[in-house]
Amino acid sequence: MNNYKKWFPIFVGPILLAFLMVVIIPMIVGIYFSFTDWNGITNTPNWVGIENYIKAFSDEKFGDAFKFTASFAVVSVFTINIIGFGLALLVTKKMKISNFLRSIFFMPNLIGGIILGFVWQFIFTKGFASLGSIFGWSFLEGWLSTTATGFWGLVILMSWQMSGYMMIIYIAAIQSIPDSLIEASQIDGANGLQKLRHIILPLVAPAFTVGIFLSLSNSFKLFDQNLALTGGGPYDSTQMLALNIYKTAFTMNKLGLAQAKAVVFLLAVAVITVTQLYYSKKREVEM
Amino acid sequence: MKRSKKVLALAVIFLLVSTMFLGACSNDTADDTKEPQTDENSEGTGDELAEAEVDIFQFKVEIAEKLQEAAREFEAENPNVKVNIETVGGGDDYGAALRAKFQSGQEPDIYNVGGPQDVEDWMSKLEDLSDEPWVDQALDGVLSGVTVEDKVYALPFAIEGYGFIYNKAIFEDAGIDVADIKDYSSLESAVKELDSKIKAGDLEDDYPLLEAVFSYPAKETWVTGLHTSNVALSQEFDSSLDSFDADKVAFEHGDGLKALIDLQADYSPYADSKAKLNAVDYATQVDEGIALERVAIIQQGNWIYGGVNDIDENVAQKLDILPMPIAGAKEDSIPVGVPMYWTVNKNSEDADKAASKAFLNWLYTSEKGKEYVVNEFFFIPPLKGYDNLEPKDSLGQAVKRYAEAGKTTPWVFMGYPTGWGMDALGVEIQKYFAGEVTWEELISNSQAKWEEMR
Questions:
Q1: Which site among A250, A252, A257, A259 would you substitute to test the B interface, given the most B Cβ atoms closer than 10 Å to its Cβ?
Q2: Are A40 and B418 in contact (CB under 8 A)?
Q3: Do A41 and B273 touch (CB under 8 A)?
Q4: Number of CB pairs < 8 Å for A and B?
Q5: With contacts defined as CB-CB under 8 Å, which chain B residues touch A234?
Q6: Residues B415, B273: one domain?
Q7: What total number of domains does chain B contain?
Q8: Which positions make up the signal peptide (chain B) (predicted)?
Q9: Residue B40 lies in a domain
């Protein structure tokens, strides 16, 4: 115990210092700036009280971005985790190419968001269009030019990128299920679906907590893919929160207002993800 | 087996960590420049400059390399001065990066501003350049956007012009005489004639890819919201200072603007489903449009020359510029203006400031500097005294031709409220194409935004 006390500051100290310097202090400075009319150039901004917050809440586009982000997050949390879990089930079957498939499915996660955005922009606008004209399917043409196709474009891109990562988490969880439990259920006569429903899913629940948390917070904070794929277009209808904040800051030069939006954003994401964690935790079963 | 895995893991960790450090360091090494070559026999620029180091933070990626070369030559003539150049491209990104640069305490000595709004924002960091020799040589109007209370704060990069860039050969083969195109109605009839010939397949043999007259990139809100709108609003405001001071926008030539936008949409490949124009971007319009002879006319500026030239030199030679006419206004001209300006940081040390001014002066007024500006940067000079240096590209020549004939209108979009052109009007135009708003709503929404953002 004594040892613990002696070592604690030595191990925690450096990280704590770094954390203070790059996260906590900038956050406090940021909160201060959200009450000013800072334009990013001079360091002596004027105090304007809660004016920025009033503006942020009365900003229609910010509200639209919030709605768009929320619906995107809901849909993509489902698709990412369902696909990720499906892939995990697939590659934990004893197949010869399992390891190969794992690398393939994980690969998209290693590519940067900006590059992915441009690659998929090409696929959606050029690839889809030429497929559409070959087969005469008009729904494949003009992708990303409407709100709906922009939305589904983002969902497809994110599912493709994130599912592989979630797959890794689910693989670990599935592999940690003792064989004895599976065998016992087989002896009791459970079929594949029953095994999944009553043995695997409950025991993988902790992984779902993590998976849903990661995909939820990532979807809310999405920036690069949004910027590169649609850039908020058409007519800013696919603009997500982070992009809206960025544009407020660097296109409109209203850094104070952007900072206020960022604080609102931080609180919203925190509340949503903490609520999710609380409820998911409750569903987990102990072995 | 275990052991080798451990070694592998260690190697991977080492690699990752070292790339992190390398990545962090490369920023510093990138702008490390060679020691100035001290040439005892160089003539110098007259006044001996004191020991100084000039840090330039600029945004034009296209000239980055040649600017380095120019800087080396300047160093050779002025052995006491060292010039460091850092380039960050793009519109928004430059503004953000410049702010970060100033915030971090590494203030550059020379940097770029874009117009009246920038001048107001950065006023506390701008050196008064009114006494510089190039001020007197400036062409009419190029300094108006950066002059406050009779003091000049910046040196224009270049002048640029845009209009309807068209492919001369296609027009010739279609039997349309461009000399007749002087106003909106003659433009419209020429477009209709060309369109009917394309649809009838008359031009298919020579131009197999040609599919429409126009390509209009509604995705690029700077093309629609800034450039197209400027044609109408420059009839309403006399200069960017005028639009900068205006509390309201009337859209006096709103109908003419509508006609120009509709013309480009109706004779594009997406005439039947205009919402798809909202996915057309710069690359589709230029690289896969005019450069491949897929379309005959696009609304763009002389800056596209290099890109088209890289794709097809023959096509680049065939390009010329048609006026952008607003019916009932000045119809035979193109908008010409200054995209960006050089400024000197007021808070730099005196020796650095003097060297910075000397460098800008050398670049734009000395014979060697002029050579760089015209033949290496492909700029159309904003100053007088470049008589023996002609632009070498077809579009630069076209812009110069309009400028010399006085057939120009100013760029007033530099004075729009920050973000209005692209994020209000440009977005409204996208909504208009998508059928979300009518033209009347577009006008009233944009007017309301202007007043709100002022």
A1: A250
A2: no
A3: no
A4: 71
A5: 218-219, 275, 278-279, 430-431, 433-434
A6: yes
A7: 2
A8: 1-24
A9: no
Range of the domain at B352: 45-159+338-385
Q: Which two tokens stand for residue B284?
A: 């589709």
Listed in sequence order, the residues at least 6 apart from A109 whose beta carbon sits closer than 8 Å to its beta carbon are A161, A162, A164, A165
Which domains, ranges and CATH numbers included, belong to chain A? 61-283 (1.10.3720.10)
Which residue is closest to B118 within chain A, CA to CA? A253
User: Is B15 part of a structural domain of the chain?
Assistant: no
Report DSSP state, residue A34.
T
Residues 207-246 of chain B whose Cβ lies under 8 A from any Cβ of chain A = 218-219
Q: Closest residue of B to A141, CA-based?
A: B276
**Going residue by residue through chain B (454 aa), what tens digit of pLDDT does each one get?**
455 556 656 555 555 554 444 444 444 433 434 344 433 344 444 457 788 899 999 888 778 888 999 999 999 998 889 999 998 875 557 888 888 888 888 899 999 988 888 888 888 889 999 989 899 888 877 888 888 888 899 999 888 999 999 999 999 999 999 888 888 999 999 999 999 999 988 888 889 999 999 999 998 888 999 999 999 999 899 888 888 888 999 899 999 999 999 999 999 998 888 888 888 888 889 988 999 999 999 999 988 888 898 899 999 999 999 999 988 888 888 999 888 899 999 888 888 999 999 999 999 999 889 988 888 888 888 888 887 788 878 898 899 888 888 888 889 988 888 889 888 999 999 999 989 999 999 999 999 999 988 8
Q: Are B361 and B267 a contacting pair, CB within 8 Å?
A: no
Q: Which chain A residues touch B99 with a CB distance below 8 Å?
A: 40-41
Q: How far is CA A160 from CA A82, A109, B146, B258, B343, in A?
A: 12, 8, 49, 41, 46
Do B421 and B298 have their domain in common? Answer: yes
B119 occurs within a structural domain: yes
Contacts of B121 in chain A (CB under 8 A): 39, 41, 253
